[in-house]
């Protein structure tokens, strides 16, 4: 292979023989750091898109253009503009060069608008020696800062958050660590020499780790950018530890600028497009892209009352190879992956499980069981030595904080059983996090304690910290949970009682149901805000799920949709666990199941007028409350004509009368929350005597009827 003058290597880089390609390549090989950690996934893409493709590689001459220079890029997700990326290269004196990458984006999380921003500044010498990295990341009102300095053969990392800091060293070794300026020169020399693959190591601040990059040269293509057709070099980058993620880039062959890049993360297409300052910084036209909804894995078979599910059998259809997927989903004994031909028994173990006639493609079966109640093997505090990381404080788990320790100690009192103590802390977190929502971003345990608001991540981190502070080994778990016709990303907590046992503080669950699909367990050490995101890359956007069958409170359910049993005036929904009787003259229309776990039925009381009864049931999240539902209805209708508190058995309920502002029709509603399900019985446009019949009907409602 030709290696002309343009292929001269920076210090510590070398040519080597690739045993797989049978070709020469440029390498600075290094075993990847095992501590893979990751901050919000969108920031990772921004750095990958520009880290080694920052401004101007010259394919005609060496070295690249001299600083200062800058580039502006628009950032898109699923073709929607969500923000910008800015790259600035400057000479800093002392024969050094600094490359700064700024990103800013605005997206939604369950309707809540969230701003995410980051700045990464890499400093290196012109000879290619790395000096330092400064990284600042903010999600909503939360921010973290990481400084990394090269000292000898190590990279010293200091991460700072709210009143907490962590320090650790990463061994570099005796081969090169490449920063963006040197990466430009390395790639320019390699491509000029027609090297098919370039390998080097660099530092990813989002992951707080050194990773190995493999850049493959795919050829020259025409791409559209800046309202023009540009001849561009197409490259594809993969990174050790991120097996299911690649970044494709197209570089202008006359300047080396990255004119377009593309990656798919958790099923979301993410792109950068070379632009100018005014266009890149102009606000998006809308903020309709919702990261939570975009990453949902839909299920055709809906599960009413998912928090009561004791055992679940899922059919998993991979969109690629299954080896990494099996490893991510396998957590015996409570979560087991088997191929369809290996399945021998159904949920409950009382009947053989047949495969569907269409099961000719290679699918997996995932069987999940609610964990059995464990017996404690020690008294608090835990004195063993094997779970040091699960007991130690960190940047996000500030279990050494005096205020946090005092609260935890007061809550458990004299309790020495680890599970009983953890469950008490779990219920306190569930109750004390009074503002449940998705606008926070990713706050630490101490921030969650002080603000008392957040989503599942804040709940999980706070419970983990409280448990550690009283001597219970604890860790955060990430995975999927069933909710409203889909499986979505979720985080909960595991505590060690002799075995690892899961608790879900967001839902207040002292034993998690079988719709919790575990993917990763993380100690959150080292200052990373989300190492659990890396395993999710092997799952999210790469599978389809089908509910085969499940067990709930001793009953087994199969079929394409929840069953509704109507026998004259008697109505019973076993899966919704509700039964009631309608007045003699009321007859149902065709029952319908609507999206998002609604069960909806219409009953016209008489054919002589337009009155109708609508019965709805919907699974709700941990951010739902009956008072919140009442307030929403009140705001919509402009107040109630009548409001009365009542009860359905032991369950609180509200009876409301109002007029709909759209059609002007009168309505009488009964609303109540039973566990994870919100019920609403509404009589629309009642005639004389209908309200009395409605009140008589709601007096027959029975909950808990399987």
Report what the structure shows.
The chain is of the alpha+beta class and 706 residues long. It folds into three domains: 7-294, no CATH class; 296-559, C8orf32 fold; 565-703, Protein Transport Mog1p, Chain A (3-Layer(aba) Sandwich). Helix content is 16%, strand content 42%. The strands form seven sheets. Strands 10-9-8-7-6-5-4-3-16-15-14-13-12-11 form a 14-stranded antiparallel β-sheet. Helix 6 (402-412) crosses helix 9. It starts with 13 loop residues before the first strand and ends with a strand.
How would you summarize this macromolecular structure in one to three sentences?
This protein is 16% helix and 42% strand. By secondary structure, the protein is α+β, with helices and mostly antiparallel strands.
Mean pLDDT: 80
N-to-C CA distance: 73 Å
- Envelope shape: globular
Number of helices: 12
Supply database-style keywords:
about 40% strand, Protein Transport Mog1p, Chain A, disordered N terminus, C8orf32 fold, seven-stranded antiparallel β-sheet, 12 helices, 39 strands
Q: Which helices and strands occur, and which strands form pairs?
A:
Blueprint: E1 14-17, E2 24-27, H1 41-50, E3 69-77, E4 80-93, E5 96-109, E6 112-125, E7 130-139, E8 142-151, E9 154-161, E10 164-171, H2 180-192, E11 197-204, E12 209-225, E13 228-239, E14 242-252, E15 258-265, E16 268-275, H3 277-281, H4 291-294, E17 297-298, E18 309-318, H5 323-329, E19 335-339, E20 364-369, H6 402-412, H7 418-432, E21 435-436, H8 445-451, E22 453-454, H9 456-469, E23 474-483, E24 486-496, E25 500-503, E26 516-522, H10 533-536, E27 543-552, E28 555-557, E29 565-567, E30 570-573, E31 578-581, E32 592-594, E33 598-603, E34 612-619, H11 626-637, E35 642-648, E36 651-659, E37 666-674, E38 677-684, H12 690-698, E39 702-703
Parallel strand pairs: 21-22
Antiparallel strand pairs: 1-2, 3-4, 3-16, 4-5, 5-6, 6-7, 7-8, 8-9, 9-10, 11-12, 12-13, 13-14, 14-15, 15-16, 17-24, 18-20, 18-27, 19-20, 23-24, 23-26, 24-25, 27-28, 29-30, 30-31, 31-39, 32-33, 33-34, 34-38, 35-36, 36-37, 37-38
Helix pairs in contact: 6-9, 7-9, 8-9
């Amino acid at each position: 292979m030709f290696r002309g003058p343009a292929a001269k290597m920076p210090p510590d880089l070398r040519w080597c023989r690739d045993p797989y390609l049978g070709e020469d390549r440029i390498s600075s090989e290094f075993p990847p750091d095992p501590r893979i950690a990751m901050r919000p996934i969108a920031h990772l893409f921004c750095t990958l898109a520009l880290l080694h493709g920052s401004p101007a590689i010259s394919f005609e001459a060496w070295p690249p253009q001299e600083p200062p220079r800058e580039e502006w890029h628009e950032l898109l997700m699923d073709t929607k503009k969500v923000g910008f990326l800015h790259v600035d290269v400057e000479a800093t004196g002392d024969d050094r060069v600094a490359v700064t990458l700024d990103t800013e984006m605005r997206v939604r999380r369950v309707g809540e608008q969230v701003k995410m921003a980051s700045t990464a500044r890499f400093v290196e010498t012109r000879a290619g020696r790395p000096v330092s990295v400064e990284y600042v990341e903010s999600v909503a009102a939360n921010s973290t800062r990481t400084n990394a300095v090269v000292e000898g053969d190590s990279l010293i990392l200091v991460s700072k958050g709210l009143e907490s800091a962590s320090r650790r060293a990463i061994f570099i070794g005796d081969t090169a660590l490449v920063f963006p300026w040197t990466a430009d020169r390395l790639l320019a020399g390699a491509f000029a020499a027609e090297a098919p693959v370039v390998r080097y190591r660099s530092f990813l601040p989002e992951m707080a780790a050194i990773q190995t990059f493999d850049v493959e040269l795919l050829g020259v293509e025409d791409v559209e950018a800046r309202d023009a057709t540009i001849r561009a070099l197409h490259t594809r980058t993969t990174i050790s530890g991120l097996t299911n993620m690649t970044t494709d880039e197209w570089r202008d062959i006359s300047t080396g600028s990255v004119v377009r890049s593309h990656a798919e993360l958790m099923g979301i297409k993410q792109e950068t497009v070379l632009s100018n300052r005014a266009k890149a910084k102009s606000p998006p036209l809308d903020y309709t892209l919702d990261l939570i909804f975009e990453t949902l894995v839909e299920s055709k078979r809906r599960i009413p009352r998912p928090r009561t599910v004791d055992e679940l059998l899922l059919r998993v259809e991979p969109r690629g190879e299954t080896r990494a997927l099996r490893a991510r989903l396998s957590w015996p004994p409570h979560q087991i992956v088997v191929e369809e031909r290996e399945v021998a028994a159904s949920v409950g173990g009382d009947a053989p499980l047949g495969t569907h006639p269409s099961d000719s493609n290679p699918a997996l079966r995932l069987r999940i069981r609610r964990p059995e109640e464990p017996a404690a093997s020690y008294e608090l505090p835990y004195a063993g030595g094997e779970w040091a990381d699960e007991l130690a404080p960190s940047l996000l788990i500030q279990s050494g904080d005096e205020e946090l320790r005092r609260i935890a100690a007061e809550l458990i009192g004299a309790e020495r059983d680890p599970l009983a103590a953890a469950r008490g802390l779990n219920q306190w977190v569930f109750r004390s996090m009074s503002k449940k929502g998705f606008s926070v971003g990713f706050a630490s345990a101490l921030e969650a304690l002080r603000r008392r608001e957040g989503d599942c991540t804040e709940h999980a981190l706070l419970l983990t910290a409280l448990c550690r502070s009283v001597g219970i080994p604890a860790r955060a778990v990430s995975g999927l949970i069933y909710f409203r016709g889909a499986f979505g990303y979720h985080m909960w907590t595991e505590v060690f009682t002799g075995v690892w046992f899961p608790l879900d503080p967001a839902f207040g669950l002292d034993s998690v149901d079988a719709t919790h699909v575990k993917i990763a367990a993380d100690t959150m050490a080292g200052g990373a805000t989300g190492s659990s995101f890396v395993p999710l890359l092997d799952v999210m956007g790469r599978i389809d799920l089908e509910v085969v069958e499940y067990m709930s409170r001793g009953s087994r359910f199969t079929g394409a949709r929840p069953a509704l049993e109507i026998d004259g005036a008697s109505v019973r929904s076993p899966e919704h666990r509700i039964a009631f009787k309608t007045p003699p003259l009321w007859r149902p229309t065709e029952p319908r199941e609507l999206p998002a776990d609604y069960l909806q039925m219409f009953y016209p009381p008489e054919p002589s007028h337009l009155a109708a009864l609508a019965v709805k049931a919907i699974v709700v999240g941990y951010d739902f409350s009956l008072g919140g539902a009442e307030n929403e209805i009140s705001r919509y209708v402009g107040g109630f004509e009548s409001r009365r508190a009542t009860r359905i058995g032991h369950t609180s309920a509200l009876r409301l009368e109002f007029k709909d502002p759209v059609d002007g029709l009168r309505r009488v509603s009964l609303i109540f929350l039973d566990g994870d399900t919100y019920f609403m019985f509404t009589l629309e446009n009642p005639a004389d005597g209908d309200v009395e019949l409605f009140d008589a009907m709601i007096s027959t409602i029975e909950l808990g009827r399987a």
